[in-house]
């Protein structure tokens, strides 16, 4: 279940898009149904009735907040407990044997967060970037589906060196203007409680125009440093399946609360993602391979650190064994020599 993406918190949907009707989402190859209980609290179940395997998302939510299977009318609450089995005399102790599979879900920062393992033990709490919890900030939201594995999309979001080339007329414009023959970019990474901070210097000059944080497992926060203002882009690369990724982009700002600026922000973000999308979707293989299967250089430090995490902590590939044997391998030490790929 949730192969390569198990036991992690991830946003899966914009909270306001979940209304009275059930909502089906696919996460890492698993179909999940989201719905609201009578009190408005979000619930999440594997989208499969334990009776005959029918999609619960095709059913409806009753006044009591239980979701009803469209096939035979079995009803389940947000914890997955079977509350009703029509046309049968089934005592409560027997109904407990026919529960649906529930998943931990929380509504925070305007997003619905899902923990990719049934049950609540060990789930903890999702790490939600502070700006998403600040109701004083304006926000714009953009969602897209890319034809790629989520790991390629995530590496793209952590990659500074592509900015002056792929985004030369947008967010990489200033960096492009500063390029000289023989320019060198130094990329540094620092561990944080939620993941990693990435810092880039071009030709030794610390411009401090942006700061970038990776939020485990699939989030990125890019803060644009504007004196006296707060502007941040929050990107989440949510795996749909092995070939598709749902990109959720939430931009927060402390200025420009009127609608025209929100629309302009969305249009600008769409342009940036359009520049990224064609390139990322062309990457082969779609899923990031083990480090030694691609050429890497020093400026790839941040993306290789993420790849180490994915291969060793989520996927558990052959690279994980290499990491354990060779502590100088990039998979083991992302702040070591990033060109050493085993």
UniProtKB/TrEMBL annotation:
InterPro entries in UniProt: Cholesterol_7-desaturase (IPR050584), Rieske_2Fe-2S (IPR017941), Rieske_2Fe-2S_sf (IPR036922), VanA_C_cat (IPR044043)
Domain Rieske span(s) in chain numbering: 9-114
Signal peptide: none
Keyword terms, alphabetized: 2Fe-2S, Iron, Iron-sulfur, Metal-binding, Oxidoreductase
Ranges in a coiled coil: none
Example of a GO MF term: 2 iron, 2 sulfur cluster binding
Superkingdom, natural source: Bacteria
One Pfam family here: VanA_C
Gene3D superfamilies (alphabetical): Naphthalene 1,2-dioxygenase Alpha Subunit, Chain A, domain 1, Rieske [2Fe-2S] iron-sulphur domain
Keyword Membrane annotated: no
Protein name stated in the entry: Rieske domain-containing protein
Source organism per UniProt: Sorangium cellulosum (Polyangium cellulosum)
Organism taxonomic ancestry: Bacteria, Pseudomonadati, Myxococcota, Polyangia, Polyangiales
